[in-house]
């Protein structure tokens, strides 16, 4: 059985400890039986996370930077892109992805060419030996602006 990760009451979200302190436990052992619950599988905006309205603790961590990788002209492929705490962590991951893509082009006899800008958090790589290769674009975005 999964316990709720947070409770909602008084127009705010609260951690289990604060909810238990405010309401106690029922005879069944449930915390705050009349409050709303947020289960581990409920969706949450990873850009903002969830903090307790009473004690301020972080219930669901905030991951405001997202690395988007896709073929130019098409929607991003990954329905659950990588998210990070800092721009620097996201750029580091993006650089790894660009290198992996470059190496995969080389492994298949390709001639990789492109550019990478760590300051902007953007990169592009394509196979120069193929006339109609759209390549791959990589970008770190501030998740709240998606």
Describe the protein in words.
This protein is an alpha+beta fold. The chain has two domains: 6-60, no CATH class; 65-145, no CATH class. It contains two helices and ten strands. The strands form three sheets. It has a five-stranded antiparallel sheet with strand order 7-6-10-9-8, covered by helices on one side. A hairpin with a 2-residue loop joins strand 1 (6-9) and strand 2. The longest helix has 21 residues, at 87-107. The radius of gyration is 22 Å and the shape is elongated. The relative contact order is 0.15. The mean pLDDT is 84.
Q: State the helicity in percent bands.
A: 10-25%
- Number of domains as seen in the coordinates: 2
Mean pLDDT: 84
Name the helix and strand elements from N-terminus to C-terminus, one letter apiece: EEHEEEEEHEEE
Based on secondary structure, the structural category is alpha+beta
Cα-based radius of gyration, to the nearest Å: 22 Å
Supply the number of helical segments: 2
Largest sheet: 5 strands, antiparallel
Alpha-carbon distance between the termini? Answer: 34 Å
Q: How many β-strand stretches?
A: 10
Identify the strand order in the major beta sheet.
7-6-10-9-8
Strand content: 25-35%
**Low-confidence region ranges:** none
Q: Could you say which overall geometry the principal axes of the C-alpha atoms support?
A: elongated
Brief account:
The chain has two helices and ten strands, in the order E-E-H-E-E-E-E-E-H-E-E-E. The protein has helices spanning 16-23, 87-107; strands spanning 6-9, 12-14, 36-38, 50-51, 58-60, 65-70, 83-84, 112-117, 122-127, 136-142.
